Amino acid sequence: MYQQAIQRYLQKHSYNKIDLKAVLFDMDGVLFNSMPYHAKAWHQVMTDYGFDFSEAEAYLHEGRTGAGTINLVSQRQFGKSVSAEEVEGIYAVKSKIFNSYPEAKAMEGAAEVLAKVKKENLTPMIVTGSGQTSLLSRLEQNFPHTFKKELMVTAFDVKHGKPHPEPYLMALKKGNFQASEAIVVENAPLGVEAAVAAGVFTIAVNTGPLEDHILLDAGADVLFSSMEELAKNWEALYRAFS
Ligand code: CA
C-alpha cells in the first residue's frame, strides 16, 4: 500500500527514489493538540465581528494568515475586504482569546513518532506558520533534545504562508536537503498543498474534524487517522522508503 503511494509520487516528480534524511513536522495539530483552541477562538472573534464562521471552518483555513482568512470571509459575506487596521484589531482579539485558554498539550503519539525518527538518525525539523516567541522552549519542554533552532521555519522566516510552498522550500534550504530526501507530516489541507507544491512526499494525519477526502484531495500521499496511527505504522512506512 505504501509502495504504491511512493511509486505514484516518484513518477509524478521523475525522481528515482526517496533517500530519506529528514522529516519536516508541522506543529499545530501535529505535535500539539492546539487546533480545538484556535478553532474556538476564531469562531468567537468572527461571530463577535458579525461574520459567519464555524469552528469546523477554522480547520479548512488552518495555516492561512489571519488577514487572509478574515478577508476571504468578508469577501464571501459582504463582498468587500477589511482594512488593515480592522484585520489587526480582529487578529489581536483572536490572539487574546486563544491565550486565555490553557496551554495545548502535546499530541498523543507525537513523542513516539519523534523517537522513531531519531532512532533512524533522521533529522526532525519544524515548519510552522506560528510566530510565537516561546515556541522553541515549549518544544524543548515537551520533546526534549529533539529540535534545533536553526532547523526551524516559523512565521518570521517566510514572506508567504501555507498553502504557498515557501515554508517547506525554506526548510529544505535550511537543512540542505533535496525534496526527495525529506517527508512532511501535516494535518491541514493548506499545509498539505504547501508541502506537495514544494515537491515533498506528504503524510497527512487527520487529527481534526475534516473528512479524509479533503486532505487526500489536497494531494496527501498517505493518510493516517492520528499521530498514534502513524507511530504504529512507522516501521512499515519506513521500510517502504528503503
Ligand atoms: Ca497544522
Describe the structure.
The chain has 242 residues and is of the alpha/beta class. It has 2 domains: 2-34 and 104-241, Rossmann fold; 35-100, DNA polymerase, domain 1 (Orthogonal Bundle), CATH 1.10.150. Helix content is 50%, strand content 10%. A 6-stranded parallel β-sheet has the order 3-2-1-4-5-6. The longest helix has 17 residues, at 84-100. The chain is globular, with a radius of gyration of 18 Å. The model has no long low-confidence stretch (mean pLDDT 95). The structure holds calcium ion.
Short structural description:
The protein is an alpha/beta fold.
Helicity range of the residues?
A: 40-55%
CATH architectural designation of the largest domain: 3-Layer(aba) Sandwich
| CATH classification class of the largest domain | Alpha Beta
At the fourth level of CATH, the homologous superfamily of the largest domain is HAD superfamily/HAD-like
CATH overall fold name of the largest domain: Rossmann fold
Strand order of the largest sheet: 3-2-1-4-5-6
β-strand percent reads: 5-15%
Determine the mean pLDDT.
Answer: 95
> How widely separated are the two ends?
14 Å
List the secondary-structure elements in sequence, H or E: HEHHHHHEHEHEHEHEH
* Shape category: globular
Low-confidence segments, given as residue ranges, are none
Number of helices: 11
Attached small molecules: calcium ion
